[in-house]
Write a structure and sequence with these properties.
Elements (H helix, E strand, L loop, with lengths): L52 H8 L1 H4 L4 H6 L9 E5 L30 H17 L4 E7 L13 H13 L4 E8 L6 H9 L2 E6 L20 H12 L5 E7 L6 H9 L5 E5 L25 H14 L7 E2 H10 L16 E4 L4 E3 L13 E5 L5 H5 L2 H5 L9 H5 L3 H4 L21 H29 L7
Parallel strand pairs: 1-2, 1-8, 2-3, 3-4, 4-5, 5-6, 6-7
Antiparallel strand pairs: 8-9, 9-10
């Protein structure tokens, strides 16, 4: 039997790094204005300037920050797993002001303290640290994601510099390690020149868009409130003419929009994959309710499952597979006992680290939807390795699989597929991340429906095979 991995005693806080000498000095500190010039910034951060990350974590999320004993977890059979995906925040500002953005509009306002762009020295140090980690763990591959803000605010000639820096560092330190690279953009700044520069370095392009019609994208606006859809649609049409560069589309679910119309309108842009994302929400900041009186999160209501299942039925019964839908394919794979390739489902250990523009090392960006500083680690490229991140309690908790889950989740028959849901969706203020997903009911309905569809398809396949090749009669 595994030893208990919780403790009433607080863990030592991670060492607090000194100033990062790689932080750009030419620009000076981040300007004391709101993003895109929206007026003066508040005089202090939400939780007070100078509050240590460890203290914020302990107050906001006792699980895992004061209740998880990382050393005991290691002794109980939970080794650290290496980081395989590195998100480089090359730009901290954006040319859009999407009303639901977790970076700018939710609990964490750390973007205000970040330099506008990642300096070359910070990029070089990131490349060294990534190569160091890849060599230490003999990684066959690392995945790089250029992110922001809006990463395409970078000039075309410099877009690929971070990927080339990592590639050079790996060639010197870990030559067996290959790279995959993508850039995640809002699509409004896609041009032939940028696509050419990205393709030359093997960088594919993913676009965030909430549907293929203007009405689906009313929340995706610039700082003046003007819609961003027109420019994004032009960029996507251009990208669709370069299928080798096209990674896919990310779409946040909006219950106010018709699900089948949303899905079919996206097909007009010929995406190779579509990622349908549940809105970032938690028990203290619940998901947006559905349209109409009495809808939404009423007891027994599953509006997000209903929305997704309308798309699933259209996708599953289509005469041809016109795109891949990542959420559905992940559920099917997990039902069949195959490994997950995402942190939003299943029990696979977290494997993503974020490098901010100032060189600080953070956890997954989606945690910023929970509370101020939720992604912070107190670590930086100049003072910490990625191996040290693996023992940070917040990161270690997301590598514990079933042992990190609430009791009800651990006992659930769907746990191998659901995995407790996306980690940020489990948060409750003052308690932390050991609750079921706020989307628990929706996930159960979705997974059970897809399981039934797969079972029916398998049964029909066996019947067809038997009809074509009937069993031989006994002699």
């Amino acid at each position: 039997m595994r030893r208990a991995i919780t403790s009433a005693s607080a863990l030592p806080a991670p060492a607090t790094p000194g100033p990062d000498p790689a932080r750009p000095t030419a620009e000076g500190p981040a300007p004391a204005t709101r993003r895109n010039g929206e007026g003066p910034a508040p005089a202090t951060r939400h939780t007070g300037e100078g509050t240590a990350p460890a203290a914020r974590h302990a107050r906001s999320a006792p699980w895992p920050y004061t209740r998880l004993d990382v050393a005991a977890a290691r002794a109980a059979g939970h080794p650290p797993h290496p980081i395989r995906q590195f998100v480089l925040k090359t730009r901290s500002r954006c040319n859009l002001a999407c009303t639901y953005c977790y970076v700018y509009e939710m609990a964490d306002q750390g973007w205000r303290d970040q330099p506008v762009a990642m300096a070359p020295a910070t990029t070089a140090r990131a490349a060294q640290r990534i190569a160091e980690h890849a060599a230490a763990h003999d990684l066959p591959r690392v995945d790089l994601v250029l992110h922001g803000g809006e990463p395409l605010l970078t000039a075309p000639a410099a877009l690929a510099a971070p990927v080339e820096a990592v590639r050079a560092a790996l060639a010197a330190t870990s030559p067996r390690t290959r790279i995959t690279a993508t850039v995640q953009t809002n699509g409004t700044l896609i041009t032939r020149g940028r696509l050419t520069a990205l393709a030359a370095s093997g960088i594919r392009v993913g676009v965030s868009l909430d549907g293929g019609l203007p009405a689906h994208n009313t929340r995706r606006v610039d700082r003046a409130g003007h819609p961003g859809f027109g420019a994004a649609a032009r960029g996507l049409r251009l990208l669709a003419r370069h299928p080798d560069s096209y990674a896919g589309v990310l779409c946040v679910i909006d219950l106010d929009q018709d699900p089948v119309e949303t899905y079919e309108s996206l097909l007009a842009f010929a995406p190779p994959t579509v990622a349908l994302l549940l809105p970032l929400a938690n028990w203290s900041a619940p998901p947006p309710p559905g349209p109409g009186p009495g809808s939404g999160r009423r007891p027994g209501g599953t509006p997000y499952a209903d929305w997704l299942l309308a798309v699933f039925e259209r996708w599953w019964h289509d005469g041809e597979r016109r795109t891949r839908i990542r959420l559905f394919e992940e559920i099917i794979a997990l039902l069949l006992g195959l490994p997950a390739t995402t942190e939003t489902l299943g029990l696979a250990p977290a494997a993503t680290a974020v490098i901010e523009t100032d060189g600080s090392i953070e956890q997954a960006d989606s945690l910023k939807s929970a509370y101020e500083g939720a992604a912070a680690t107190g670590m930086a490229l100049d003072t910490h390795s990625f191996d040290q991140l693996l023992d940070h309690p917040g990161f270690a908790a997301r590598q514990l699989g079933r042992d990190a889950l609430a009791a009800g989740c651990r006992a659930c028959e769907l746990v191998e597929v659901c995995g407790g849901g996306h980690y940020p969706h489990r948060y409750r203020a003052g308690e932390g991340f050991r609750q079921p997903s706020v989307y628990c009911a929706d996930l159960q309905v979705l997974i059970r429906h897809i399981a039934t569809a797969v079972q029916h398809a398998a049964t029909a396949g066996r019947r067809r095979a038997t009809a074509v090749h009937p069993p031989a009669a006994a002699s």
